[in-house]
Amino acid sequence: MRYIGLDIGRDFAHVAVVEGGGAARRLPRLAMGGEFRAFAATLGPDDSVAIEASTNTWALAELLGRHAGAVTVSNPLRTRAIASAKRKTDDIDAATLAELLAADYLPPVWRPDEATRTLRRLVSHRAGLVRDRTAARNRVAAVLARRLVRPPATDLFGVRGRAWLESLELPADERLSLDSGLALDAVLTGQVAAAERAIAAAVVDDPRARRLLTIPGVGLVVAASILAVVGDVGRFDRPAKLVSYLGLDPRVRQSGDRPAMRGHISRAGQAHARGLLCEAAHSAVRSPGPLAGFHARVKARRGGAVATVATARKLAVLVWHLLSKGEDCRFAPAARTALKQRALDRTAGRQWTRPSQRGATGSSRDLGRARLRGGDDPHHPALRQAIDRVRADTTPPSGA
Q1: pLDDT band at 368 (very low <50, low <70, confident <90, very high)
Q2: Reading across the β-sheet that carries 12-19, which strands appear in turn?
């Protein structure tokens, strides 16, 4: 039995082999491409290979898995914690992987299926486009800041805002920078919409996505990002595991007889998914319900920033329960959830039949709009006012 450790780089792969319980033996490095494929073809069913998780991990794991008996993808953070050394080279890293694999002490990572990997690529692609669009919009904002101009429109890149920007008198160099930012924003906005259509098509038939949309504040992008990061929720045996995986758990420090000290969140895992959950928390607390009440209590004691992160942690716990138990959120506003489900179908290109508008005018229409603003809570002011108007309209005339 051979245990092979591979330290993968952009241009070369460093190889180390452990045979018969001896020390790791280094092999000549391999050029990525044809030479690496030729080495993979020499592997057999008695060979066990270890690589670290990186950008092209799963393509390499699939290539090696066609020939080797077993392929283990290790968590690089935990591997470094186990095998910390004063000297660090690619050859030493490859030897460390081979020795840990031979000792059966290599922490593996979960291997997602092809559908999850595709969804991860789509979500990552959209996130990159959004970062580029934000950079283009920041250039436009920088031009206005340099000219000491405050925009009159709330949405600077909406119809009204763009019309104002185009009519703004600027020097030639500033006009060139502003027009360039606007052009990039228009192109990137179209690309973001195309990425969202691809994401919607990938999850439109997934009942897990429909279930996550019942959570207040969770839309298509947040639901798809959660599914891409979490994958199979069964690998987390309790909600705290998922919270820790997303980096929303507090750091704990304890030594001797001193009590445990809790600090900031660990920020482990993907920052993109964690940030989206915080954005969802901002939206969720606007609807009446347990999340809004929890946010208000924490905000009164610890401030808004801590309350938002704590609410994001609550959302992660809620995600675990919904996906594990196959249930919808009990406090989901029915009208808002229906809108999100319908938006998912439209974005994915599904045909949708508009329901009859009979009886949807006047007070009934106001009641529906109030439900969208305040949820189904009968004590919400907007919904209370609409209910009172409906009752006033349906009161029989005097003497009838």
Answers
A1: low
A2: 25-31, 12-19, 2-8, 47-52, 70-74
Do 92 and 188 belong to one domain? no
DSSP 343-379: HHHHHTT---PPPP-TT-STHHHHHHHHHHHHTT-TT
Domain with 169, as residue range(s), is 114-203
Calpha distance 36→75 (Å, rounded): 22
Residue for token pair 């009641």: 367
Spatial CA neighbour of 222 closest among 314, 319, 118: 319
How do residues 46-59 score in pLDDT, each as one tens digit?
999 999 888 888 88
Examine the fold and report which residue of 45, 72, 102 is the final residue of a domain before the chain moves on. Answer: 102
Contact 48, 69 (CB under 8 A): yes
Total tally of structural domains belonging to the chain: 4
Residues 180 and 293 in one domain: no
What is the tens place of the pLDDT at every residue in 100-138? 898 888 878 888 999 999 999 999 999 999 999 999 999
Q: Are residues 337 and 380 in the same domain?
A: no
Could you tell me if residue 54 is inside a domain? yes
